[in-house]
Amino acid sequence: MKFLALLGILAALSLSSAANELETFDLKTYHPENYGLQDLTGEVRIDDLLKRLNKISIFGKLTDVYFKIYWTKERGFGLTIEGIKDSFRAQKENLKELVIHRLEYIIPRPLADLAQGMKLTTARDQADTVVTAVDPQNKKDPNKLIFTFSADNRLKSLKIFASKMVAETTYVYGPVNGSMNKVVLLSSKADVQTLVPAVQRHLVETKIEYGIVENVVLPTKIQIKTMAVDPKYIYPTPVAFAQINQEGTQVVENILTISNYKANGQDAANFYKQLDWALQATPTPVASTAASAKR
Description:
Mean pLDDT: 85
């Protein structure tokens, strides 16, 4: 009985330690909403997107195309595309995929939220701390996360196990001007392997620049380089980024510039009010005008 009680105590301590690692990192990370941000709008432009869209010519002559972002603390992100007629609704929804997965660079999601409802355990790997989060009922997707923290509690890597993909990302965090001695994400390298409909592998390098907008630190430029990897390098064969790049893989680079931010002006709140009114007025799905993504 004493042995079983001891095991219970050790398990509880491991759970507490794992949760503390995530919460401590969140406390050290800059979150704009903790510094008064309640309502945010901005414009995202992708270098050469206008040129590419005009080249395919299905939209007619376009003069300016950008993504309008809306965020409130209560509703998360909304996203619209300006400069393309509403009659191209399906094409606009597809174009949103270029931006919607980058929104968490603007308002980062707490790590504790990612692991909410999952069973946590912690282990040591030399000087690093490894926190594993597993869904005991295997209903979540992803159902397993592995966080690795350095000795000073900075997130070094995150491995995600989902039904259709496995991804491992390494991170570089550091303080920037105005971040109040908190750290922000400066760059990352992700190795993403999609399993459905066919096994594919992509390496994604991301670099982020920041500025100060009304006393809040926000990204102003996001550089993303995506490399499609030859099938012979499919997991589990480990290959360095540099070696793969030399093999002549297909490389796509996108630069996202975020400008015309407006903080705490009620514009995002008004956007959601209008969206709610539109949804109440018609049974037709109007939600396609907004791509909600909780932070």
